[in-house]
């Protein structure tokens, strides 16, 4: 299903992009692909690339890190750095020799990432890469997901949807969203999956991404 660069973005911040990236890395590695994960820009104290490496076991790297938990272009300005250029990010992503390069953005699709406020949508368009949109499970996700997918459609980019954190005790909104969430859904990742030990995470990850598992069987 995936080959070459793949963009992972979200409908918002904190929707489970990093855990989805790790699960995708495991599923694709299980299909025999070599996989590398790239975090475009890390802000604040988190270590998303480190989390993906720990859970999935694939090679990872982070292109930029800023101390304030803000949009990367804003965080760079606040600490006196110029911010990443689009050309540098593009070159580093294209330098990957892996079969599949999973490229995790920061926040949502149109968050400014560097100089001239380029976005992960701009990078996806330049790479002609498919985009995996990680969405919330609960109330409000239909609108946020539809807006994100509409922008990807406007740019003629192929898109897929993963529910990033399915709650242990889902309510009416979550169950109804299983039917009504727009887009081509390829997976649903359980809440707190990132707390699993790496071996347990790797055993379970492919099952969470049902369409990838079907593609492997075919």
The portion of residues forming beta strands comes to 15-25%
Strand order of the largest sheet: 4-2-6-1-7-8-9
Number of helices, where a helix is a run of at least 4 consecutive DSSP H or I residues: 9
Rg over CA atoms, rounded to whole Å, is 16 Å
Main sheet: strands, sense, barrel:
7 strands, parallel
First-last Cα distance: 11 Å
The arrangement of helices and strands along the chain is: EHEEHEEHHEHEHEHEHH
Number of strands: 9
Query: What structural class do you assign from the helix and strand content?
Result: alpha/beta
Query: What is the average per-residue confidence, as pLDDT, rounded to a whole number?
Result: 94
The level of helicity is 40-55%
Instruction: Give the uncertain stretches in residue-range form.
Output: 214-218
The coarse silhouette is globular
Account of the 3D structure:
- The longest helix has 14 residues.
- This protein is of the alpha/beta class.
- The C terminus is likely disordered.
- β8, α7 and β9 form a beta-alpha-beta unit.
- About 40% of the residues lie in helices and about 20% in strands.
- The strands form 2 sheets. The protein has a 7-stranded parallel β-sheet, with helices on both faces. Strands 3-5 form a two-stranded parallel ribbon.
- The termini are close together.
């Amino acid at each position: 299903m995936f080959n070459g660069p793949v963009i992972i973005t979200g409908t918002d911040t904190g929707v489970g992009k990093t855990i989805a990236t790790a699960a995708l890395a495991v599923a694709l590695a299980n299909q025999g692909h070599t996989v590398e994960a790239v975090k475009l820009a890390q802000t604040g104290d988190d270590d998303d690339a480190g989390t993906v490496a720990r859970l999935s076991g694939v090679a990872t790297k982070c292109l930029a890190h800023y101390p304030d938990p803000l949009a990367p272009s804003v965080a760079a300005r606040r600490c006196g750095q110029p911010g990443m250029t689009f050309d540098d990010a593009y070159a580093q992503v294209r330098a990957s020799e892996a079969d599949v390069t999973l490229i995790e953005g920061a926040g949502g699709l149109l968050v400014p990432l560097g100089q001239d406020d380029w976005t992960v949508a701009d990078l996806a368009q330049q790479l002609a890469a498919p985009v995996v949109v990680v969405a919330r499970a609960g109330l409000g996700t239909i609108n946020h997901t539809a807006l994100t997918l509409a922008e990807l459609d406007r740019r003629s980019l192929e898109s897929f949807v993963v529910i990033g954190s399915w709650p242990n005790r889902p309510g009416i909104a979550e169950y109804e969203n299983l039917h009504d969430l727009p887009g081509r859904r390829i997976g649903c990742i359980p809440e707190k999956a990132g707390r699993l030990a790496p071996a347990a995470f790797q055993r379970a990850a492919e099952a969470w991404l049902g369409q990838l598992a079907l593609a492997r069987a075919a």
